[in-house]
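Title: Comparing notes on inverse folding

I've been comparing how different people in this forum approach sequence design from structure. To keep things fair, I'm posting one structure and asking everyone to reply with a full sequence. Here's the target:
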């Protein structure tokens, strides 16, 4: 008596095979989303208060013995940076969970996984725009946020397109 483990059985053609390309994409998503999940959890667990952050910056500035434009700008925007960092960690956590859930469903050749995955790719961009608004006046940080957003968009859109090319294999 044989038992079918994979739930992707097609009565007309037997068990459906997952394309290698889709398998590779899913594995990459499992790894990337897993790292994002761990990073977000760590970010929330290790989050300092605005007061602790400001105090550490003042100590660093005192140790240098002079005013630093970079540290001054961060201190002025500490509340906004803190707010967006916390929100970013929560959105990153939700995004990672949606990415993992979507990839798991696509691993099982379910089309609904694609739409869940796409929904998980959107929230981090809100954080990028918020962090940019908080850091745009800090030397080089605004530019770094724009470059980060461009790379994030390239990877997110790229993966959505590559998963979209595999929709024909899902039901």
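Reply #1:
Here's my take.
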């Amino acid at each position: 008596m044989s038992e079918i483990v994979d739930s992707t059985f097609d009565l007309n053609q037997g068990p459906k095979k997952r394309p290698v390309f889709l398998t590779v994409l899913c594995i990459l998503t499992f790894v990337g989303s897993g790292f994002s999940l761990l990073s977000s959890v760590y970010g929330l667990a290790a989050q300092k208060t605005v007061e602790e952050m400001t105090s550490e910056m003042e100590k660093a500035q005192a140790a240098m013995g002079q005013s630093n434009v970079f540290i001054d700008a961060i201190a002025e925007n500490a509340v906004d940076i803190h707010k967006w960092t916390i929100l970013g960690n929560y959105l990153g956590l939700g995004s990672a969970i949606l990415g993992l859930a979507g990839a798991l469903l696509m691993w099982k050749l379910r089309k609904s996984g694609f739409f869940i995955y796409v929904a998980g790719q959107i929230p981090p961009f809100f954080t990028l725009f918020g962090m940019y608004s908080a850091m745009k006046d800090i030397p080089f940080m605004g530019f770094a946020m724009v470059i980060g957003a461009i790379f994030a968009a390239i990877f997110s859109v790229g993966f959505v397109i590559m998963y979209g090319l595999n929709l024909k294999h899902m039901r």
